[in-house]
């Protein structure tokens, strides 16, 4: 990777000072404090998270109730993952060369369109599961491509852990309130009427997120062209730090590929009650809120390595109670344990990836391409995890097989720690 001299102008048109890569004048402040733009981005993300949590938690359940098919949900999710990855790659050009806020807003609007389509289709959603997965994937691709670029531009190494801690708190708050409300409404209004109401509420909140995005500043472009295959060149270059970081990201994706949709479904199948799923989300998200607050406040560069190792080990081992019995109580133990230890893993993981993107002037100027490279790692990992799910579930749908699958993908991030550990020390400069 080429190194450029300090003082070269960045895409925002401002000269970058030594040590200030990725810094935005309006987005961050000295001493790790968050500026107005960072707070506004967290607000938009909070609204997006609430709208998604209201309905997204129950989409797998909704499809399951309509189809009674594990495989259908797997193919829906595969369409979502693959389309989001392709959309990320294509949207990178738009975000780099034109107006990134259009991509952000389009992602929010398409998310609303997805839930509106499900609302209109009703029980017939089971017929269009692949197109629905692709529509959801497009929405996620456009939104997260722009979000990650804006996040990079308004944060810097000394406040990214803080930002990610607050983002985790907001996600936990969304998980506390939204799914519980959804579960209560679905059970109170007896199913279909409840689903229609929560999908409608989600549409309104997505609209508020679009309105809020108009106050986010769009840093100007400087005429650089989007490099379609920069990520592949990074991975081919001998000694490039991305050759260690990329497989670590893949391991994160392997776990996410199964856990992002399977847990809520397993809880519903075990309890046959959406309200119980809402209560599960409320309890585990409350634990996550406290954990993200504590870890975000206490995590320092000096203790990243041991903290992340502890987190990766524990989020794998916490699956073990499910080998004894799969019921609401053991699932709740699993959920609480995951919420407790996940911040130890995900905060340093996310922060160090974005620190790597901003470690040099050259790298920071190619942030869009490198964010696409990060997403490619996540998508590859998610597809690997989902492929394991589809293979296992095509052979057997026994409880023991599902729990074994959860354990196997749950311990994969431990391998990721071995790849990323050289970058977790306080004085590492990605050499």
TrEMBL record:
Principal localisation: membrane
Signal peptide annotation: none
UniProt-listed Pfam families: MFS_1 (PF07690)
Keywords: Membrane, Transmembrane, Transmembrane helix
Keyword Transmembrane: yes
Statement: the UniProt record of this protein carries the keyword Signal: no
Record-linked InterPro entries: MFS (IPR011701), MFS_trans_sf (IPR036259), Sugar_transport-like (IPR052528)
Stretches the record annotates as Disordered: 1-28
Membrane-spanning ranges: 38-64, 70-90, 102-122, 128-151, 163-185, 197-217, 253-271, 277-295, 307-324, 330-350, 371-392, 398-420
Domain of life, per lineage: Bacteria
Membrane topology: Multi-pass membrane protein
Cellular localisation: Cell membrane
Protein name as catalogued: MFS transporter
Source organism: Paenibacillus glycanilyticus
């Amino acid at each position: 990777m080429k190194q450029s001299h300090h003082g070269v102008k960045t895409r925002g048109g401002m000269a970058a000072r030594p040590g200030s890569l990725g810094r935005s004048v309006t987005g961050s402040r000295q001493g790790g404090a968050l500026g107005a733009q960072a707070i506004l981005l967290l607000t938009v993300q909070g609204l997006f998270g609430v709208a998604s949590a209201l309905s997204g938690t129950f989409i797998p359940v909704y499809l399951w109730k309509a189809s009674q098919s594990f495989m259908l949900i797997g193919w829906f999710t595969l369409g979502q993952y693959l389309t989001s990855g392709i959309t990320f790659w294509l949207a990178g050009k738009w975000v780099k060369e034109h107006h990134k806020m259009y991509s952000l807003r389009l992602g929010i609007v398409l998310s609303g369109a997805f839930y509106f389509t499900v609302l209109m289709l009703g029980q017939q959603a089971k017929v269009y599961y692949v197109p629905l997965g692709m529509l959801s994937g497009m929405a996620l691709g456009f939104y997260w491509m722009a979000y990650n670029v804006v996040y990079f531009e308004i944060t810097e190494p000394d406040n990214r852990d803080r930002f990610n801690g607050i983002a985790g708190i907001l996600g936990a708050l969304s998980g506390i309130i939204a799914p519980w409300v959804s579960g209560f409404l679905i059970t109170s209004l007896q199913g279909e009427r409840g689903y229609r109401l929560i999908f409608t509420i989600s549409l309104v909140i997505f609209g508020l997120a679009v309105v809020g995005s108009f106050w986010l500043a769009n840093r100007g472009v400087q005429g650089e062209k989007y490099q379609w295959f920069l990520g592949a060149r990074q991975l081919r270059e001998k000694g490039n730090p991305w050759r260690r970081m990329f497989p670590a990201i893949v391991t994160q994706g392997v776990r996410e590929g199964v856990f992002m949709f399977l847990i809520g479904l397993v809880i519903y199948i075990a309890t046959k009650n959406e309200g119980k799923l809402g209560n599960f989300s409320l309890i585990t998200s409350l634990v996550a809120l406290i954990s993200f607050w504590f870890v975000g406040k206490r995590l320092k560069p000096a203790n990243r390595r041991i903290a992340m190792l502890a987190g990766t080990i524990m989020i794998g081992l916490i699956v073990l109670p499910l080998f004894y019995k799969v019921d609401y109580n053991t699932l709740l133990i699993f959920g609480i344990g995951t919420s407790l230890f996940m911040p130890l893993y995900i905060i340093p993981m996310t922060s160090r990836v974005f620190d790597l993107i901003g470690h040099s002037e050259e790298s920071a100027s190619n942030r869009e391409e490198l964010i696409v490279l990060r997403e490619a790692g996540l998508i590859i990992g998610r597809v690997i995890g989902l492929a394991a799910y589809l293979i296992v579930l095509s052979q057997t749908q026994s409880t023991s097989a599902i729990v074994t699958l959860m354990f196997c993908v749950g311990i994969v991030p431990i391998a990721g720690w071995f790849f990323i550990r050289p970058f977790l020390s306080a004085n590492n400069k990605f050499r």
